[in-house]
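Batch job 17 of 40 flagged for manual review because the log was empty.
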Amino acid sequence: MAYEVKNYDSLLGTQGMSDTLLKNHFTLYQGYVTNTNKLIDTMMAMVKEGKAATPEFAELKRRFGWEFNGMRLHELYFGNMKKSGHAISEGELKKCLVHLFGSYEEWEKAFKAVGTMRGIGWVVLAYDPEGKRLFNLWIGEHDVGHLAGTIPLLIMDVFEHAYMVDYGLKKIDYIETFFKNIDWSVVEKRFSV
């Protein structure tokens, strides 16, 4: 069963993000879905042909993490956005953020600081259900920086393609726009899993 491209056209018209930026981003995401499916098919064919112990198979297997995580992180990113956003409630997630960071504002400042770091990647608010802790993670290049067993709650893309069409090098302006369009109801639902 192949992965299918999800439709995020409901984000078109989002204030602060042009339709050109969003459509380009959707096209990039579609490529991750396509490549994920191609890699699965190719690797399965190689296994059936007895080629699973080859260097070519090993390189495809390594590439798979890049493509799959590129697909999934984009789905989580687009999924936690909504035109004009949806405010965080006074529920358990906010209480946990306040407990760990001192206040919601201190958490937000820390999350945004990770986003302004030099480099390309993702900023993720992740929850460790075993340790009952929240972390602001930097995930570089899709497949480096994930903490095993954590649940991604809030995902912000900070690769240049996420903002340069509209913001040039002003990443902080993009981050401010992103925060205005967070759908906290989705993020809170991820936390309650």
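Reviewer: the log was empty due to a logging misconfiguration, but the result itself is present. The chain has a mean pLDDT of 96. Unflagging and moving on to job 18.
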